[in-house]
Amino acid sequence: MFNLVKSIQTQTTHTNPSMILSRLLSKYVHNIKSPKDFEKYVLKSKVPTIVDFYAKWCAPCKGLMPKLVKHVEKADGKLTMAKIDIDDQGVEQTIVNHRVRSVPSVFAYHNGKIVDQFVGLPANKFIADFVDKLKKLN
């Protein structure tokens, strides 16, 4: 038992809290690793999807991701989220197709099309309004 607790403590003290949160709340949050993932979780999604291009080393990304995850989880199925780490192999073409030049870059998809987007870490009110607008599309 002690080893298990010690292992969990080590993992949580050496891991970014936003990454832990996004791993725990994965019912509506998907990690995109390939064009097939993007097609399945974004283009063919039955509900609006927030696509977050991020990097593990990006400070604003670390601030934005838990906020987006929280809103998506509160939407309880009315929205999903797709996370794309720009440093992962296999997502290069998706990054080029979206003309991502800085992170975080966030795109909102509905019925396979981009309906909104923003770059950077906006104010909480902006994020809430962005998500509310997407929920109304459903």
UniProtKB/TrEMBL annotation:
Gene3D superfamilies, per the entry: Glutaredoxin
Record carries keyword S-adenosyl-L-methionine: no
Keywords assigned: Disulfide bond, Electron transport, Transport
Species this protein is from: Anaeramoeba flamelloides
Domain of life from the UniProt record: Eukaryota
Pfam families associated with the record: Thioredoxin
Protein name (Swiss-Prot/TrEMBL): Thioredoxin domain-containing protein
Annotated Thioredoxin domain residues: 10-138
InterPro entries for the chain: Thioredoxin-like_sf, Thioredoxin_CS, Thioredoxin_domain
